[in-house]
Write a structure and sequence with these properties.
By secondary structure, this protein is mostly helical. Helices cover about 60% and strands about 5% of the residues.
């Protein structure tokens, strides 16, 4: 039995520059898998439409504003800076062409993007495992039915576009590695640059591309320096332009970023736990989960170093995936250490799923090919059981989501409980009253805008001094306070604190929330 060594992990077949491996004739199985993916998104969104989160509402309001000539503004009337402008611009193109609002068309946009993701994944597998096409089908199953990916593509999130751009970047960088021409380099740089204005984390594509060029031993030092400067300049220029725009309109580069509350070590643990969820070893003891996640990271560093000295195989998809995996992992852990993030979840780490998974289409076939007799058949049986086990857990997770989505809608603002909310119904019936007052505060401001079209401000975060100072000033004016019990968050000022410190007059109370009026000190109740 031969020992496992990264020197043997790649072959010249994986370096094939033949782009025809993405053609329908050689990638028809991926097209079929893509259509299955399209059907899945349709089934999940059939009852209540595409899933909507608070971020989704910001994207929708931005796109509406762009199409109506108002520029990149959120529904609160402020310029968008927490997110880059690329994804709202992308949505605005669909909105402008179709004239169908994004709440209705969102699922069709995601069907298209999910098909593209699956099709591109299949083409990359064709390159990675050219001589062992049999392994492609089970991996396509893992991709199509991945709860991590379905969780992203059933929601109107920027990750849906970012993941596709990431795979396009892999393809373009692979092509650059075959030619090393000016034109292919510019294409790679433009794709990396566009990713930066879809998600700020797109800077990791610039980092991964820069790392690949920097460590390319076949590039002459002078040419390497020129390519790095050109790639870096074009790639980062998109982000710089977005940041300059942000600063000019708000005085901030990326919105109001708060200091992180989690340590470096805790972020590594959180990262590992989500990574464990990807591949269903999260039921192991936590220490084992952490060790496995760290082992994956170390393994990809090791394989990347080996590829540096295998110059003919340097730009294969294995090494490109490894480079991105390394850079994105470092970025996401370090940025969460210095800047406050939402809790680590599959959405945040979804860009790592495919770069981690795709190289194993070669590892598995390589391991099997190096064994004979009963050892070979035992290994085949092991991998079959592994795939069956993962598919079973995928089925369980997907079934749970479908049971919710088919009757109530995808969890979030697409759920019937939000659409039929008594509080929302009250606001709709009394729109003129709410429009008479200049400001509304709520812990569900996105829902108010989505279902009534009335803009509302978010209740201040507990630890945000600027928001709290502005809120105190507002106490001299009249406003409405609308509280949704389901949206109670420990990060926002609590209802008890608000009622204790300020004067409110109850207007309506329902099982899902309560509506208050805050009068100006010299005013009487306007609804009497």
């Amino acid at each position: 039995m031969q020992s496992f060594h990264p020197n043997r992990l790649t072959s010249h077949n994986t370096m094939s520059p033949d782009i025809s491996l993405f053609a329908l004739k050689k990638n028809y199985d991926s097209a079929i898998a893509g259509l299955i993916g399209v059907l899945l998104i349709y089934l999940y969104s059939r009852h209540g439409g595409i899933g909507l989160s608070p971020d989704s509402i910001v994207y929708i309001s931005n796109a509406r504003s762009v199409v109506h000539g108002g520029g990149f503004f959120e529904f609160e009337g402020i310029p968008v800076t927490d997110f880059p402008i690329g994804y709202p611009a992308f949505l605005s193109i669909f909105l402008f062409i179709s004239r169908l609002d994004l709440v209705q068309s969102g699922q069709y946009i995601n069907m298209f993007l999910y098909f593209c993701l699956i099709y591109l994944s299949g083409g990359i597998i064709n390159h990675i495992s050219t001589k062992n096409r049999w392994v492609k089908i089970p991996f396509l199953f893992l991709i199509v039915f991945s709860p991590a990916l379905i969780g992203v593509y059933t929601m109107l999130w920027s990750e849906t576009l970012f993941l596709v751009i990431t795979l396009l970047f892999f393809v373009a960088l692979h092509q650059y590695g075959q030619t090393k021409t000016f034109n292919t380099l510019v294409v790679v740089a433009i794709i990396a640059g566009l990713s930066c204005i879809v998600r700020y984390a797109g800077v990791t594509l610039v980092g991964a591309g820069g790392l690949m060029i920097l460590l390319d031993r076949k590039l002459h030092p002078g040419k390497k320096f020129g390519h790095l400067i050109l790639f870096g300049t074009i790639g980062i220029s998109f982000l710089v332009a977005n940041l300059i725009r942000n600063y000019l309109v708000t005085g901030m580069l990326m919105g109001n970023r708060e200091k992180s509350l989690t340590s470096f070590s805790q972020n590594i643990k959180n990262y590992a736990y989500v990574f464990g969820d990807f591949f269903y070893f999260d039921s192991f003891p936590k220490t084992i989960v952490i060790l496995i996640a760290i082992s994956f990271f170390i393994f990809y560093i090791y394989s990347h170093i080996i590829h540096i000295y295998k110059t003919n195989r340097y730009y294969n998809y294995w090494n490109i995936c490894a480079s991105f995996f390394i850079v994105y992992t470092i970025f996401i852990i370090l940025s969460a250490t210095f800047s406050r993030y939402e809790a680590y979840n599959m959405r945040l780490l979804s860009p790592l799923y495919l770069p981690c998974l795709l190289p194993f289409t070669f590892i598995i076939t390589w391991m099997i090919s190096k064994r004979v007799g009963w050892r070979k058949y035992s290994l085949v049986a092991f991998f079959v059981l592994l795939f069956v086990g993962i598919n079973y857990y995928q089925y369980k997770d997907n079934s749970e989501l479908y049971e919710m989505a088919k009757d109530e809608g995808i969890p979030g603002y697409a759920e019937d409980s939000w659409k039929n909310s008594p509080v929302i119904t009250y606001i709709k019936k009394n729109k003129p009253r709410f429009k008479e007052v200049s400001r509304i505060y709520s812990n569900g401001n996105e829902a108010i805008y989505l279902f009534t079209g009335i803009p509302a401000d978010l209740i201040p975060h507990r630890e945000n001094k600027v928001e709290n100072a502005n809120f105190i000033e507002e106490q001299q004016d009249e406003y409405y306070l609308i509280w949704f019990y389901e949206n109670a968050s420990p990060e926002l000022l609590s209802l008890n604190k608000l009622l204790k410190e300020h004067k409110y007059i109850p207007l309506a109370s329902y099982p899902d929330g309560i509506i208050f009026y805050h009068p100006a000190p010299e005013n009487n109740h306007p609804l009497k």
